[in-house]
Design a protein that fits this description.
4-stranded antiparallel sheet; single chain; Alpha-Beta Plaits
Length: 95
């Protein structure tokens, strides 16, 4: 038995992360399709969730934010890393 594939699978799981981006210019379902297509083609991306109303995109995978931002910028959707605001953070009383 060769343990290498299991190690590679475990390594990929260890490097998985979720990145949230604020994306400008998304106004319709066609925009959502373009954003999904541009991000899903990147190596390491495993899932893309677009929230059109909030103007946010959540990307999960073994990828850093910069290539995601570059890909979106190149198709006309300026993006930046989303930052948490006080209203995004729940206190234990609100759980």
């Amino acid at each position: 038995m060769n343990p290498a594939p299991d190690f590679a699978d475990n390594l990929e799981e260890l490097t998985m992360q979720t990145i949230e981006l604020n994306v400008q210019g998304m106004t319709c379902s066609s925009c959502v399709k373009h954003v999904n297509a541009s991000l899903n083609q990147l190596a390491g991306v495993t899932s893309v969730e677009v929230d059109l109303t909030a103007g946010r995109v959540r990307v999960t995978g073994s990828v850093e934010a910069e290539p995601l931002i570059t890909a979106l910028d190149s198709v006309g959707y300026p993006a930046q890393l989303a930052t948490s605001t006080a209203s995004d953070i729940k206190d234990c009383d609100q759980c």
